[in-house]
């Protein structure tokens, strides 16, 4: 699936920047460490926006397209930030046959974003994930650490209402 | 020999060195294995699976382009039923996502995919008709169009871009969504693409092509109120013949001028004049820098791909660049000033067309500070390929054309100008003039052979009138980087550097006729084309730029001295630092 590129402006803290600088400094000149650096960067920022990929490219001395090519090849890398509340919809086999797609569609409609996107206010992000091992509760979604099982599309509005702060 | 292996290819015994790739071994016994993605030493990735062959005992078919022969007694079958079936299926699968608008495709007739489909008897274009991603075309760059709907994902363009040390394109996403693009899917004109066009000449299909300006030029020719002047670059005469099936390295100077005249241009000039003029300006600038303690090493500025590279990648070193415009722009500026004045033509009515081996020239003619006479020096740049197409569509039989000369007074060119088209040529031309200007004596021989040849980086030191002048030459921007890193850290002890953006120089430019991989891989394209220029140089009565009578006349009647105020206004330009990405 094509990844969505976030249009939300990138924000950076001095602490985050220093962390990424340190990771890059350790690996400069060793292109084989590119994925490692990208993983660390994603741990720091939650995703890999333009500014971060550019910094990695410059630091690792590779064209930015190379970084972007890797970022769009592997499912583990995100181009959109995680929201304050990160919603994951399990699309594993059990959840899927129990109607997870309808729940995802409903979330998407209510939030006005597609999977792998984040709302403009940075509040909610939406991910379609693989089996999270709670098949007995299918269909399952998680909001940060909270787990909601055996839900239907009709429950979506009520769940979102709990996260209005 | 110890490391020779005795093998059989289609039952034919032969012996090959250990580790030889099957594709190379097959050539030794006269078998050409078809390929799509393979570019020798540039793109050896075994991705397209079109070159598959059977190796006795192997579990499955192997890719001949990357499979090394390591066992004595290896038996290879390149044309078995299994192989033929596999290749045909591969073509059918490629066609399943290929936009099959072949009749209107710019590469119809010299498309490598089309040719293979014919050879392998593909009878159903839509045998597998599944999901078909649709891509918007990228028209953003000044010089080219990318149409991913035609792309077969061979990655030859990516390899070519990396070979140039640029790497602004690559494979994005995966599976059915895989496509060639830039970081963050940015349009090409917002990246550090240098417009060299090496991706174009390496594309097997119609996925990347130059922006075609032939209709605009035909319109200008047909417009009675316009005075349409054309110039043709040195390297075009060494390659235009290829467009019409002539052997690589055929010099078609005379037919080229005859064709241009028959296309209806009002004046047919030769960029050789502009090249000789460039040498006068550039050699004078260099001697001035040496004498007055200016910035050295000075670097040539003829190649717009190289200039754009320098602006993106070495924005702090722009003062090393000669301020001279390229020969094309000089020629255009003189056409719209001196020539217009002399002939009483309003420069506003002159349409200045240039036939170039280059796609970056399409970008160059639209740059700022390239309008010496108050009008764009050059209005339209056509590649060698576009000229070829114009000749065809005008119904001109190229082979039956007589040999003709170009027009006066901006037509004379010396041998020094002709060799501008090959790496080392500008340097040699400059040395021929600088040596005689410095010493005041005639050179015993005009040839400076140490700066010739297809090596990516060359160095030489010449003693000119008691002064040691150390020079360096690079072609291809990856090689330019080697010299520029030295310039940047201050360790470059050269006086003068020549850099051309394309490997081998203009003869291998991105605007030159497209040769299929089967030719590119096994023919010395650069060497053969360059040899045509050096032969042309040898055949000329005048071989030094300062002896060009037309150039002398322009200085005497119009410009005054080289680097005069007027010369600066018309023939020199400026550069700008450019970011790597402008998001």
Mind sketching the topology for me?
The complex is a heterodimer of chains A (165) and B (583).
Chain A: H1 14-27, H2 34-45, H3 50-60, H4 64-73, E1 85-90, H5 93-97, H6 100-111, E2 117-118, E3 124-129, E4 141-143, E5 146-148, H7 156-161
Parallel strand pairs in A: 1-3
Antiparallel strand pairs in A: 1-4, 2-3, 4-5
Helix pairs in contact in A: 1-2, 2-3, 3-4
Chain B: E1 4-9, E2 12-17, H1 22-28, E3 52-55, E4 62-63, E5 75-77, H2 81-96, H3 112-119, E6 144-146, H4 156-163, E7 170-172, E8 179-181, H5 198-202, E9 208-210, H6 214-222, E10 227-232, H7 240-243, H8 253-263, E11 267-270, H9 271-292, E12 298-299, H10 304-313, H11 327-343, E13 350-356, H12 360-364, E14 380-383, H13 384-393, H14 415-418, H15 425-439, E15 457-464, E16 467-475, H16 477-489, E17 496-500, H17 517-520, H18 525-538, H19 549-559, H20 565-571
Parallel strand pairs in B: 1-5, 10-11, 10-13, 12-17, 13-14, 16-17
Antiparallel strand pairs in B: 1-2, 3-4, 3-5, 6-9, 7-8, 15-16
Helix pairs in contact in B: 9-11, 9-15
Give a written overview of the molecule:
The complex is a heterodimer of chains A (165) and B (583). Chain A has 7 helices and 5 strands. By secondary structure, chain A is an alpha+beta fold. In chain A, β2 and β3 (124-129) form a beta hairpin. In chain A, α1 (14-27) packs antiparallel against α2 (34-45) and α3 (50-60) crosses α4. The longest helix of chain A is centred in the first third of the chain and has 14 residues, at 14-27. Chain A starts with 13 loop residues before the first helix and ends with a helix. Chain B is of the alpha/beta class and 583 residues long. Chain B folds into 3 domains: 4-79, Ubiquitin-like (UB roll), CATH 3.10.20.740; 106-210, Alpha-Beta Plaits (2-Layer Sandwich); 214-571, Rossmann fold. Chain B has helices at 22-28, 81-96, 112-119, 156-163, 198-202, 214-222, 240-243, 253-263, 271-292, 304-313, 327-343, 360-364, 384-393, 415-418, 425-439, 477-489, 517-520, 525-538, 549-559, 565-571; strands spanning 4-9, 12-17, 52-55, 62-63, 75-77, 144-146, 170-172, 179-181, 208-210, 227-232, 267-270, 298-299, 350-356, 380-383, 457-464, 467-475, 496-500. Chain B has a 5-stranded mixed beta sheet with strand order 2-1-5-3-4, with helices on both faces. A 4-stranded parallel beta sheet of chain B has the order 11-10-13-14, with helices on both faces. In chain B, strands 12-17-16-15 form a 4-stranded mixed beta sheet, with helices on both faces. The mean pLDDT of chain B is 96. The chains are: A alpha+beta (165), B alpha/beta (583). At the A-B interface, α3 and α4 of A face β7 of B.
């Amino acid at each position: 699936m094509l990844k969505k590129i976030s249009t939300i402006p990138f924000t950076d803290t001095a602490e985050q920047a220093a962390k990424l600088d340190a990771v890059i400094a350790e690996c400069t000149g060793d292109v084989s460490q590119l994925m490692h650096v990208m993983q660390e960067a994603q741990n720091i920022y939650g995703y890999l926006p333009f500014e971060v990929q550019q910094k990695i490219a410059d630091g690792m001395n590779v064209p930015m397209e190379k970084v972007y090519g890797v970022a769009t090849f592997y499912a583990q890398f995100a181009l959109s930030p995680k929201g304050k509340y990160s919603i994951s919809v399990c699309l594993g086999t059990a959840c899927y046959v129990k109607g997870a797609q309808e729940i995802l569609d409903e979330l998407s409609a209510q939030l006005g974003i597609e999977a792998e996107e984040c709302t403009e206010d940075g509040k909610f992000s939406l991910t379609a994930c693989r089996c999270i091992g709670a098949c007995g509760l299918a269909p399952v979604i998680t909001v940060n650490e909270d787990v909601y099982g055996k839900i239907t599309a009709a429950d979506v509005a009520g769940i979102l209402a709990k996260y209005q702060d | 020999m110890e490391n020779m292996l005795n093998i059989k290819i289609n039952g034919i015994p032969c012996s090959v060195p250990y580790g030889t790739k099957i594709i190379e071994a097959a050539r030794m016994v006269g078998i050409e294995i078809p390929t799509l993605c393979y570019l020798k030493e540039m793109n050896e990735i075994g991705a397209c699976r079109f070159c598959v062959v059977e190796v006795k005992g192997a579990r499955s078919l192997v890719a001949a382009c990357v499979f090394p022969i390591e066992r004595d007694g290896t038996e290879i079958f390149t044309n078995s039923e299994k192989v033929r079936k596999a290749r045909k299926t591969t073509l059918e699968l490629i066609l399943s996502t290929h936009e099959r608008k072949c009749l209107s495709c710019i590469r119809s007739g010299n498309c490598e995919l089309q040719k293979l489909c014919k050879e392998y008897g593909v009878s159903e274009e839509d045998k597998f008709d599944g999901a078909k991603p649709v891509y918007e075309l990228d028209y953003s760059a000044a010089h080219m169009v990318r149409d991913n709907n035609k792309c077969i994902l061979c990655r030859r363009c990516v390899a070519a871009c990396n070979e140039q040390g640029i790497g602004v394109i690559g494979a994005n996403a995966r599976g059915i969504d895989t496509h060639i693009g830039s970081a963050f899917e940015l349009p090409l004109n917002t990246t550090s693409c240098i417009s060299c066009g090496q991706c174009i000449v390496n594309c097997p299909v119609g996925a990347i092509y130059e922006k075609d300006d032939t209709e605009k030029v035909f319109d200008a020719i047909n417009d009675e109120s316009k005075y349409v002047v054309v110039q043709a670059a040195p390297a075009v005469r060494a390659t235009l013949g290829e467009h019409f099936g002539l052997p690589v390295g055929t010099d078609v100077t005379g037919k080229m001028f005859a064709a241009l005249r028959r296309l209806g241009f009002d004046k047919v000039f030769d960029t050789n004049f502009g090249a000789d003029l460039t040498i006068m300006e550039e050699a004078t600038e260099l001697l001035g820098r040496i004498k007055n303690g200016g910035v050295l090493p000075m670097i040539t500025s003829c190649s717009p791909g190289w200039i754009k590279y320098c602006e993106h990648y070495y924005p702090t070193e722009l003062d090393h660049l000669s301020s001279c415009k390229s020969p094309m722009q000089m020629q255009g500026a003189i056409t719209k000033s001196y020539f217009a004045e002399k002939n009483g033509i309003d420069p506003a009515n002159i349409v200045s067309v240039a036939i170039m081996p280059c796609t970056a020239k399409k970008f160059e003619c639209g740059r700022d500070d390239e309008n010496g006479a108050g009008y764009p020096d050059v209005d339209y740049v056509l590649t060698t390929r576009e000229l070829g197409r114009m000749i065809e569509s005008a119904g001109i039989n190229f082979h039956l054309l007589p040999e003709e000369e170009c027009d006066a007074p901006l037509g004379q060119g010396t041998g020094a100008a002709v060799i501008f088209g090959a790496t080392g040529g500008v340097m040699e031309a400059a040395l021929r003039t600088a040596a005689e200007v410095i010493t005041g004596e005639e050179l015993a021989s005009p040839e400076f052979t140490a700066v010739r040849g297809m090596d990516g980086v060359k160095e030489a030191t010449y003693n000119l009138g008691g002064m040691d002048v150390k020079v360096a030459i690079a072609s291809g921007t990856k090689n330019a980087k080697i010299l520029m890193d030295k310039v940047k850290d201050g360790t470059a002890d050269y006086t003068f550097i020549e850099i051309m953006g394309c490997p081998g120089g203009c003869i291998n430019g991105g605007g030159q006729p497209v040769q299929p991989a089967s030719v590119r891989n096994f023919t010395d394209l650069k060497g053969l084309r360059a040899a045509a220029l050096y032969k042309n140089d040898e055949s000329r009565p005048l071989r030094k730029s300062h002896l060009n009578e037309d150039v002398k006349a322009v200085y005497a009647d119009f410009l005054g001295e080289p680097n005069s105020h007027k010369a600066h206004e018309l023939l020199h330009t400026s550069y700008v630092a450019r970011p790597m990405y402008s998001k």
